């Protein structure tokens, strides 16, 4: 979530852009196409289900990035509060805009009001809730990471992968707003392991591409099986292609390695679009926005024609991303500097208060 052009190569910022594109296009499928998927042809059903799985890859990439960059950094309270306040800003802002100007388009239920006013506590933005909890745990996670040697870490990671990604019934799930916090911890440690020790086998792009081809091929096979003969029930299908899928993890780690190794130097255009990726998620996944943007603006279900679905999906991705970028740059211009100064002052006060007891 951080941006520092003096430290990060733009290849890592490109990962953030790709990850957010995966998330947005997944939301297009989830909110726009999946509600009426039974009326689609087999090919459109397959495309919808496959695109929906990309969101899990996007989420995994974000957590891998966090582990990669935070394993050798100290806890930053200012960064924690900046994410918290940005989430509140968009949730409250969108809520009041719709309440004042678009109330005829949305049914305001007590649940929706609760989610809008307390977006993190309610789990409305489940990723933010899980990410902030993970961020709070980083000091402890980092200390534990450096206590263990490479071989011990590798053994524990292999065990975690088996328990939490291969054999889900045996994995102790700590549910945090729709996600599994333990999955996030495991992915964080994978990103940290890559940063400190690397993954020699995946340093070659051919090997990484081969693993992506195999894991995504298995997911596609199960999707076709699910659509054509309903061989698997829905819960097993979601496990095979969701955020806790071993295939999703393999694809995400392999893609991360490929992009990491591109060594793209600082590029202002890439960093410009990457710096507001988080805002794209907060806007497009807002309860009010996603009820309108996919069905009423982009008319996802206007046609079941394959070419229309593909073209409209790409159009929706680029337009929504670009519009969200503009909105976020306006927010930064008008509010961010004042908010960051406020956050910094409050963080200093908190540090000074805590230091009295240490």
Give a brief description.
The chain is mainly α. The protein has helices at residues 10-33, 42-70, 77-101, 110-117, 126-147, 150-166, 181-196, 205-229, 234-241, 246-260, 268-274, 277-284, 287-297, 306-355, and strands spanning 175-176, 179-180. The relative contact order is 0.16.
Report on the structure:
The chain is mostly helical and 358 residues long. It has one domain (10-355). The chain is built from 14 helices and 2 strands; from the N terminus they run ααααααββαααααααα. It has helices at 10-33, 42-70, 77-101, 110-117, 126-147, 150-166, 181-196, 205-229, 234-241, 246-260, 268-274, 277-284, 287-297, 306-355, and strands at 175-176, 179-180. Strands 1-2 form a two-stranded antiparallel ribbon. α1 (10-33) packs across α13, α1 (10-33) packs across α14 (306-355) and α2 (42-70) packs across α7. The longest helix has 50 residues, at 306-355.
The figure for the number of domains is: 1
Radius of gyration: 21 Å
Q: Based on helices, strands and strand pairing, what is the structural class?
A: mainly alpha
* Major sheet size, sense and barrel closure: 2 strands, antiparallel
What is the helical fraction, as a range of percent?
over 70%
Widest sheet: strand ordering: 1-2
- What low-confidence regions span 5 or more consecutive residues with pLDDT below 50? 1-6
- Work out the number of β strands: 2
Order of helices and strands: HHHHHHEEHHHHHHHH
Instruction: Compute the number of helices.
Output: 14
Proportion of β residues? under 5%
Q: Given the C-alpha coordinates, what overall shape results?
A: globular
Mean pLDDT metric? 82
Distance between the termini: 29 Å
